[in-house]
Specification:
Helices cover 44% and strands 22% of the residues. By secondary structure, it is of the alpha/beta class.
Amino acid sequence: MTEWDIKKLQILRTLSERGTVTATAEALLMTPSAVSQQLSNLAKQLGVPLLEAQGRRVRLTDAAHLVLRHAEAVFAQLERADAELTGYLRGEAGEVRVGAFSTAVPALVVPAVRQLREAHPSLEVRVREAEAAEAYELLLSGDVDVALSLAAHAPTARDPKFTRVPLLADPLDVALPAGHPLASAAGLRLADLSGEPWIFGGSGPWSEITLTACEAAGFVPEQAHSAAGWTAILAMVEAGMGVALVPRMAAERGDRAGVTMRVLSADQPRRHVVAAVRRGAEEGRGVARVVGALRGVAAARA
């Protein structure tokens, strides 16, 4: 029977994710030579070539991709076993680590933690703020158990490494200076703001969301100012420096007298918030309770 080495399979999976031996070594805190040696040993154990040269780099062979398809089922089953064992050993106690992007922490995670403290006081939830894309890297590396991210920047639902749970469609409202001529206009549409100076990030998820929403409304926004934090964006709007799309979860963090938030009357863009766990881990009692609490909070908001 072919020998399957879990540690070496994890190295192979990381190489598939990271793309290079050097990046794989950095992610796993190994040397590149150790990574190469482990993968060479795995190829000998399995009796198939796993890597082939492609210029100065290497790429996975068809046999390696076949091995990984089966390995994902093995990893998922190990997650289930670990979850069941943790539940058996700790009962209702335990620790669940949650990684979430900034606006999801006060809007979704904190209310869920409050509920869990009352219903399951021995379950400890540790929260780590992370960018939407970074949350999945933390989940894959085992640094968090539940990741909250945006669907547009997350792996697909068919990714065998994760189980995704849709949480919320967060509407995007328009932030206008209080004295703006359109601040009180009836039936405001995003296209009505095509000639305005816009404020949004220079890169990253929020830049893409703003550009996509405006392009769907038939125009490309003129970026007058660049900022990534909502405090800075709303301060510039209040100063009359431009307009911005703001997720409703972010707008709730504090009112500004000089900013008027307007709900778009038609074609309102939304960002979709999802939670994810490593496939198989959703059967663990603690993780299931945290995901259930997050779904409850999201449903109440909807």
